[in-house]
Structures are given as structure tokens and as C-alpha cells.
Write a structure and sequence with these properties.
Blueprint (H helix, E strand, L loop, with lengths): L1 H11 L2 H14 L1 H6 L4 H15 L2 H9 L2 H23 L5 H12 L6 H7 L4 H27 L7 H33 L1 H19 L3 H7 L1 H26 L5 H12 L4 H6 L7 H8 L1 H20 L5
């Protein structure tokens, strides 16, 4: 057991190095990626469960005592950011499917992995977790009208159905986190924090592998288009990150603003697969595959940037 804990602690300390490697595994072993498809949903629940078990609940309570800032940041992520980036993408003359995908991505809620990776980057992980939950709760009410108004895309989305689906994920993860904290106790949970971080990295790596299913076939069929979509997804994530950070900076401290920007950059694009009609431009589904690359690579690229910015900013 001591050896396992030691290995997990070492893995947790090398998260940003290991996460891009999981994409290589998924690309190299396409049969494994295809076989792992059914695990995507359960792994998302486990990832959120570990984030909830690991989080600083004193910080969560302080945020919930004055929830206005977190709610405002979540609303800005779902409404202001897409309204700002939409005309920019429209003006660049890109593939229509890529433009639609970038806009839809900016309307999506925060990705479940944001809380875990925010912790690795020394951002405000409890705030990232809260923003993830808030945006996933609100997205059934914001995504359909935005998609219709900006893109003319009628999602025919059942608000109740999507809300129940997201509530199931959050509820199951919360129950699992409570069991972990009850089983370990407060002191042992705190002591096991680095090992839980390592376990989160392992789950993140397992989560990435099935998302690479089929990407080799797409690369062989049209390598330049896939490369363009990967580049576009990098640009989309970074633009949403910067826009949200600039929106937040006048109202919150630098660490919170950087955390909000990071959450805005990483969106739950896979959710779109569940709500898009089958008649939609297939390039949007190509984007959902391509955007997994920056989701796993950008934390590594941004780590030195955040380290530099946070050395001159007070941490809460």
C-alpha cells in the first residue's frame, strides 16, 4: 500500500507532463481507444468525485457564503464570452463547420476535469469546481437560445432531460466523494491529498484515450483539415480563456480571474454530442475530437505562465 501511495504521489506531481502522453497512447492504440468508449461517462463521474473529495471545503464554504461572484463568473462564461467571440470567428473566413463548432464550444459548460487540473496549476481549485457545477447547472437554459439566435441551430433540447442527466453526474459524484471522506476521515483525507491528485491524473489519462477513437482515420482521410481543426481548437480555448480573464479582472483578484479564464478555456464539448441533431455539419463532430488535444496539452503550456503571474499576485 505504501508503494502504491508513493507512486500516486509521484504521478500527481508530474500531472502536466503525463497528461499529453495519454493522447499519444490513444492515437497509437486505436483498438484500445475504441474499446474504452463506454468508460467515458463513468470516468467523468469518478473524476468529479475525486475533485470533490480532494477540494478545500473551507474555501468552498467561504465562496458559498458570498456566491454572487462565482455565479456572475459562471453566467459570464456561458453568455458574455460566446457573444464576444462569435463575431470574431465569423469574420475570419474559416470553414463554416469550424466556425459553428468554435461558437458552440464557447456556449458549452466547464469541463469536469477543470477542477483537477486547476489544482495542478496552483489556481483556485475550489472556485474552478464551483464554476464547473454552476455552468453545468445553467447550460440547459443558455445553450438552446444562444445556438438558435447566433447560429440558427435548433437543438430541440429537453431542458428537463439534460438537467436530470447533469444532476445524476453531480449527485453520483457527490455521494462518492462523501463516502471517501467518511471512510478516510478528515485528517487521513488531507494526508492522502497528493495520492488523490495522482489518482485523478490516472483517471484523466484513461479518460483521454477513448476520446482519440477514430482520430487516426480522420487524419488519414484529410490530414490538413484535421490539423486546421486542432489549431482552431487551440485558438478557441486560448481566446475564451483570455476574454473571461479580462472580464473578471476588474472585479476579483488575479488568481480568481486566472482561474475563471482557465475554466472558460476548457469546455465540456463532449456534451454537445448528446444534444446536436444528426443533420448538423459533421465538421462539428470533427472539432469535438480535435479539441481534446489542447484540453490535455494547454495545462502544460500554461503552467509556467501561471507560475510567473501568480508569483506577483497574492494567493487567497
Amino acid at each position: 500500500m505504501d508503494l502504491v501511495m508513493h507512486v500516486l504521489r509521484r504521478i500527481g506531481g508530474r500531472a502536466t507532463t503525463l497528461l499529453p502522453f495519454s493522447l499519444v497512447i490513444g492515437i497509437a492504440f486505436q483498438d484500445v481507444a475504441a474499446a474504452g468508449r463506454p468508460l467515458v461517462g463513468p470516468l467523468a463521474i469518478i473524476l468529479l468525485m475525486l475533485a470533490l473529495a480532494r477540494t478545500d471545503w473551507a474555501r468552498i464554504r467561504s465562496l458559498l457564503a458570498r456566491p454572487g461572484a462565482a455565479i456572475a463568473l459562471g453566467i459570464a462564461q456561458l453568455l458574455l464570452v460566446p457573444l464576444i467571440v462569435w463575431p470574431i470567428w465569423q469574420s475570419l473566413g474559416l470553414w463554416p463547420g469550424l466556425v459553428a463548432a468554435l461558437c458552440l464550444s464557447a456556449m458549452a459548460p466547464g469541463v469536469v476535469s477543470a477542477a483537477a487540473t486547476a489544482g495542478f496549476l496552483r489556481l483556485d481549485a475550489p472556485l474552478a469546481l464551483l464554476m464547473t457545477l454552476i455552468t453545468n447547472f445553467l447550460v440547459p437554459f443558455t445553450l438552446p437560445p444562444l445556438a438558435l439566435g447566433l447560429l440558427g441551430l435548433d437543438l430541440k433540447l429537453s431542458v428537463l432531460d439534460l438537467s436530470l442527466r447533469l444532476a445524476f453526474i453531480a449527485g453520483t459524484a457527490s455521494a462518492g466523494a462523501m463516502l471517501i471522506r467518511w471512510w478516510l476521515g478528515a485528517e487521513r483525507t488531507r494526508h492522502a491529498g497528493p495520492a488523490l491528485d495522482g489518482l485523478s491524473v490516472v483517471v484523466l489519462m484513461m479518460f483521454a484515450i477513448p476520446l482519440m477513437d477514430g482520430i487516426v482515420g480522420r487524419a488519414e482521410a484529410d490530414p490538413w483539415k484535421l490539423a486546421g481543426f486542432v489549431a482552431g481548437s487551440f485558438a478557441g480555448m486560448l481566446m475564451c480563456n483570455v476574454v473571461q480573464t479580462l472580464i473578471a479582472l476588474p472585479f476579483v483578484d488575479r488568481r480568481a480571474a486566472l482561474t475563471a479564464g482557465y475554466c472558460s478555456g476548457g469546455r465540456h464539448n463532449a456534451l454537445l454530442m448528446a444534444v446536436l441533431p444528426i443533420t448538423v455539419d459533421p465538421d462539428i463532430f470533427l472539432f469535438i475530437a480535435a479539441v481534446q488535444v489542447p484540453i490535455y496539452v494547454i495545462p502544460t503550456l500554461l503552467q509556467p505562465v501561471y507560475r510567473r503571474l501568480l508569483t506577483v499576485a497574492p494567493r487567497d
